[in-house]
Each structure stands twice: as structure tokens, then as C-alpha cells.
Amino acid sequence: QMQLQESGPGLVKPSETLSLTCTVSGGSIRSSSYYWGWIRQPPGKGLEWIGSVYYSGSTYYNLSLKSRVTISVDTSKNQFSLKLSSVTAADTAVYFCARLMTTVVGGWYFDLWGRGTLVTVSS
Amino acid sequence: QSALTQPASVSGSPGQSITISCTGTSSDVGSHNLVSWYQQHPGKAPKLMIYEVSKRPSGISNRFSGSKSGNTASLTISGLQAEDEADYYCCSYVGTITFRVLFGGGTKLTVL
Question: Is B103 close to A116, i.e. CB distance below 8 A?
Fold first, then answer.
């Protein structure tokens, strides 16, 4: 049974870079059926897609965050990572990693999620 | 691109049915059948309830159903139960040269 687990600092200072890693266990990140994504949720607010990565390294980003976001994949460690630069208090949120299912004829849904990790931006 | 539009809240009594709408545009919801719905209880990760507009993952009750008309997708929950009280989010693929994902703003379901 595949599982996802987020890890990284829970507190980041303003203007610094937020870095999180998602470890995939119980299966391989090298699957043609999946993209891997990051989604965040500010306290009391809705979900926001940050971006997704394919095991080959191809990336796709939310246009509103694109200038500050880098998502990468490390197939040797079965992990993918998020870096968000120049953070402000508005970036305080629970960050989820998730598996994005795709098929030849459709898909495009998040069928497996990590538990999420709260990242607070504060000095 | 703006989030998909959902009502902020809906409510119903046990046993009743409710419907949550999700309105997008002809560039997202209206252009394909790649709409999904997620249930989120407080402090928990979202859970997939519906994918490709109307399909249910294994283990999801048939009380949950999805549909779409034009640029609006809908989630219907029949036979409301107390445990259905949660936040619900719709989600759409947006694809042109590259792909993006849009979420709705979320709907709080209260079971009276």
C-alpha cells in the first residue's frame, strides 16, 4: 500500500526559502500512471494547487506561484521536493503532497494524499 | 486563473439529499470530463470521492454521485448522514499546451 509522507521545517523566516520533501513508500515513484503534486491550504481557507512533477523531471506550476516555485524529483530516493522562495506570512499553510493519477483517456485526480505538514512563516 | 466557484455552505437534515455546484468556464469544467471531488474533515487530508465527473473510487458509498452540465459540475449526496458533515472541494484539469489544476473554493456541508 503506497503512502506519502511530507517532511521539512515547520517554521521559516520571511524572505527565506521554504523546503519540503515528500517520501513515497510502498511503491515506486517511477510510474507512467502518476504525476506527483504539492497542494497547500492556508489556515481556515481552501486548497491551492502549487505544482506537479513527473518522474522524468517534467514540471508544471500554478502560474501565480511559478516565479517562486521549484519542484524536483529524486527517483533514487523515491522522493519529490518543493522549494518556495521569498516567503511571506501569506505562505503560511498546511502543505500536502499527493499522487495525481493520469490515464491515456483521462484521470487527472489526486487519489492518494500525505497527512500534510504545517509551515509557518514568521520571524 | 480564478478558482472554480462553489457555494460557501450548504445544509441538510439526516436522510435528505443535497447538491453542491461547481462552476467554471469553457476552458476548464466545460471542456472535458476531468472533474473530481474531495471530502475533507477538520485536521485531515482531503479524500477523493468522485473522479471523471461521475465515477466513484472503490469503497466510496453510492450515496455520493456526480454530474455535469455545461460549465457546471455537481456533487449530490443522498441519504445524508452525520459523518458526511465536512468541507467539499471540486477540482478540474486545465490543459492547453501545458496542464494546470484548479480547485474550487470549498463548500462547508452541515448536517442539521
Answer: no
**DSSP secondary structure of B10-34:** EEE-TT--EEEEEE--TTTGGG-S-
Give the residue from A81, A70, A83 showing the smallest Cα distance to A23.
A81
Report chain A residues whose CB lies below 8 A from the CB of B103.
Answer: 39, 46-49
The span from the CA of B97 to the CA of B82, in Å, is 43
Chain B residues contacting A via beta carbons under 8 Å:
1, 3, 32-34, 36, 38, 45-48, 51-52, 57, 89, 91, 93, 98-106
Q: What is the per-residue pLDDT across A44-78, written as a single tens digit (0 to 9) for each?
A: 999 999 999 999 999 999 999 999 999 999 999 99
